[in-house]
Amino acid sequence: MNLIIYLMMFITNSGIRFIVGIPMFPIGTMILITGAAIFIDTWILIAHTTNNAPKSHPA
Predict the structure, then answer these.
(1) What whole-number distance in Å separates Cα of residue 31 and Cα of residue 58?
(2) Residue 7: closest CA among 40, 27, 25, 23
(3) Are 30 and 14 within 8 A, CB to CB?
(4) Sequence-separated (6 or more) residues with CB below 8 Å from residue 9
(5) Are 18 and 35 in contact (CB under 8 A)?
(6) For residue 55, which of 6, 9, 28, 41 sits 20 to 30 Å off, Cα-Cα?
(7) What is the per-residue DSSP string for the chain?
(8) pTM higher than 0.85 for the full model?
């Protein structure tokens, strides 16, 4: 439950929480985990778009 609350707070105050959370270890770790999750999601999205690229853009 704390994870969901923290993620909502992270989405709303991403800039302030990033600057404040770097010196603090638990919040910094949560920021790293959230950043890794966003990176993996974007990586999967890029992989899907590149797999569908030859169909939509034959070049």
Answers:
(1) 39
(2) 27
(3) no
(4) 17
(5) no
(6) 41
(7) -HHHHHHHHHHHTHHHHHHHHSSSHHHHHHHHHHHHHHHHHHHHHHHHHHHSHHHHS--
(8) no
Give 24-32 contacts, CB < 8 A, sequence gap 24+: 30/6
- Burial letters for 15-38: b for 16+ Cβ neighbours within 10 Å, e otherwise? eebeeebeeeeebeebbeebeeee
Written as six digits, the tokens of 57 are 């853009």
